Amino acid sequence: MRGIGLIPNWEKENSALVVERICDFFEDRGVTVLTAEPGQTDYQADGSLKERLAHWENRVDLFIVVGGDGTILRAARDLACWSAPILGINVGHKGFLAEIEVEQMDRYLQYILAGQYRYLERMMLKATVRRGKLELGHFIALNDIVISRGPFSRILTLNTSINDDFLENYSGDGVIIATPTGSTGYSLSAGGPIVNPSLKLIVITPICPHSLNNRAVIVTAEECIRMRVDTRQAQVVLTADGQVGFALEDGDEIVVQKAAEKVKLVYFGDNSFYRLLHQKLKD
User: Fold this and answer.
1) Are residues 99 and 133 in the same domain?
2) 188-237: per-residue pLDDT in tens?
3) Cα separation of 109 and 95, whole Å?
4) Considering its fold, how many domains does the chain have in total?
5) Structural domain of residue 233, as residue ranges?
6) pLDDT score, position 75
7) Are residues 251 and 132 in the same domain?
8) Which of 55, 9, 10 is nearest to 34 (CA)?
9) Are residues 32 and 75 in the same domain?
10) Which one of 87, 138, 144, 240 is CB 3.0 to 4.6 Å from 244, fit for a cystine?
């Protein structure tokens, strides 16, 4: 292996000890480990993780992210343009993205060293915000794009079309547009379906709809979703994976579709999405 790129969430308890164990394991076996320092992984720092780790490009064959689902989501967005797969080691609450727990780490690091692992390509979403003839921004997400009202504003209406066909005027607290990976996140809490992450589709889930007829809708990954903000009294925000935000105005159009970028998440044959799902639902 050319090297391992190690991206810890330094704010998580025991991260430093886990990082030390990973570094010792690979370096004792002659594999270079490049470790992101606290300043490079700081959420408040300027620029993306990719920009701060630009010197890693073409030097790593695998990223290991030490943290929870939030850390993995951020790394996935920032590093999606690089071809190296990502292995998540969980040191937070049990989530759906981290493949292994800390207590399992030594055995699975042996698998990594021997090349006994696979990865699954997870689709991402791209959201484009338009105001009149201007494109104000582009956002990518592994879990979801959410358009929602502010904490003190009134109900929000989103005029929604699939391709050029009108679908619904969603009135309520907003709408979640989720990937299969994100179907077990905010979308699930809002009543959306659970989807196997290997599938290629998009889930549209209304948040607290004001009509009992509004239900989650599943469309193919090739569809283009267009939503126009129709409100003059509500504060409206677009968020990508709950981590990147953008303030919207009345009349703004949001176009959401499958992104060109994909994320490769490492998995091992003895781990199962359905087994993890059973454990999570039981908890």
Assistant:
1) no
2) 999 999 999 999 999 999 999 988 778 899 999 999 999 999 987 778 99
3) 20
4) 2
5) 124-260
6) 92
7) yes
8) 55
9) yes
10) 240
Strand 62-67 with 4-8, pairing = parallel
Kind of pairing between the strands at 33-35 and 4-8: parallel
Q: What is the CATH number of the domain that holds 104?
A: 3.40.50.10330
Same domain (yes/no): 18, 90: yes
- Structure token digits, residue 12: 């998580």
The tokens for 150 are 């502010």
* Catalytic residue ranges: 69
Tell me the C-alpha to C-alpha distance, in Å, between residue 243 and each of 10, 82, 135.
17, 21, 21
CA distances from 260 to 60, 125, 140, 257 (A): 22, 8, 10, 9
CA distance 5 to 22: 11
Residue 3, SS3? Answer: coil
Closest alpha carbon to 5 in 60, 66, 86, 81: 60
Tell me, yes or no, whether 29 and 105 share the same domain.
yes
By the 8 A CB rule, do 41 and 49 touch?
A: yes
User: What's residue 199's pLDDT?
Assistant: 94
- H or E stretch at 156: strand 156-162
Report the chain's terminal Cα–Cα distance, integer Å.
38
